[in-house]
Amino acid sequence: MKKKLLASLLAAAMAVTALTGCGSDGGATTGSTASTGSAAAEESAPAEEAAGEEAAAEDNGEAVELEFWAWWSSDARKPYIQQMVDDFNASQSKYHVNYVDIPFGDIFTKNIAQIAAGDPCDIMANSMEEVKFRAQEGQVEPLDAYLTDDVVGGFYEQYMESCTGDDGSVYALPFSVDTRVIYYNKDHFEEAGINPEDIQTWDDLWEAAHKLDVQDGDDYTRIGFLPVVGNGGVDTWLINANGGPCWFDEETTEPTVNSDVNKEAFAWVRSWIDYYGDSTYNEISAAFSSGMADPFASGVMSMVVHTSAYTAALAQTAPDLNYGVILLPEFKEGNGHTANGGGFVLEIPKGAKNPEGAYEFIKYATSYEVQDFLCTAMGDFSGRNDFTDESQFFQKPLVGDIAKALEETSTIIVPNSIKGYQDVINPIIDEGTLGIAPTDDVLDRAQQAFSDFKATHE
């Protein structure tokens, strides 16, 4: 990476460190936590109002204790999750939910182990993309006995489909979803004379990005864009180009890794790295990955692809940043603005002792009022289809613009018959991203590796 760009990143890292120090100096941590908790309490009014509308369980004496497992432990999220749990407990007296946050790297294996031991938690947060797999493996309880049409009808069809097993039973309800958009620095755009509405295709994005580049001699002090940093990967752009799954055919599950569209799109992705140089890409990518510095927040990058939840991070790291969002541009004109996205669900692990109580909590946590509260507080998006401009969440800046991307978001559900293929092709794809081998050759080899994998798993 050029020295001046690296210096800017280091300065940003020092600024983030300074902000962190202020939050923990001399016992300020307690004050900071109390302040966050207070914010949660102030914003919990919609959830508390919802409490009276939720079906109140009759008082049968001592409350049944339920465990809710998830991984949200940060100050930016845990207070609101805890507020939701507290509000549910206050809304009725039959069940008492305890929130247990377990590190993301441990929770899934621990969940499987507890199911195998016959002693699972009662409610589990989990990935939306693998509900079908967990259903097939007998790891989750079906919800059909408890579901009503009004509950099912409150979610986008695509997300309910993701929560439905191959046997037709529903095994989870959507808790949060995400999509991807391009965040852009409004001040940089104005300086360069760029209208964000003019960025409609990949060619437009390339042209705009390089108007935003700033160099001092041979050194970059600012770069316009890199497609595979932030929260975008090769698959983000290939899914955009294909308007859906890029590595396999949804109907036949046959590999489509080395299609003509993929070859053109992957070459385009690599061309950005070639333009700026491998060292620039490596430093920018490492800065995002480490969490120590955010090149977009610090002004080192003018645009970045990121998830819908990125607004919450920017509110903390760059509260004064003047930015906007645009949809991912079209591969070709008329191709669509498809973004890849996923989400998390709430489900009942197989063998849970009180599935009826677990469902009551899941229904509460995914209700309109509680989802409005959580989305407003944490910046996540909901899988519900009944949010309106009147909701508290949609009154927040940029939410309506980002929500447009949900309409063209593709949630890729891997068929159970080819689950695990990513572990085979991803290391090969990485060779093309890193420039170790030509992208066309990489896709041909990945196609063969996928075919071999599929042949041994049928």
UniProtKB/TrEMBL annotation:
Positions of the UniProt region annotated as Disordered: 28-60
Pfam families: SBP_bac_1
Signal peptide feature range: 1-20
UniProt keyword annotations, A-Z: Cell membrane, Lipoprotein, Membrane, Palmitate, Signal, Transport
Listed SUPFAM superfamilies: Periplasmic binding protein-like II
GO terms for biological process, alphabetical: transmembrane transport
Segments traversing the membrane: none
Signal in keyword set: yes
Low complexity composition-biased segments: 30-49
Top-level taxon of the source organism: Bacteria
Acidic residues composition bias: residue spans: 50-60
Similarity comment: Belongs to the bacterial solute-binding protein 1 family.
Protein name: ABC transporter substrate-binding protein
Organism: Candidatus Eisenbergiella merdigallinarum
Upper taxonomic lineage: Bacteria, Bacillati, Bacillota, Clostridia, Lachnospirales
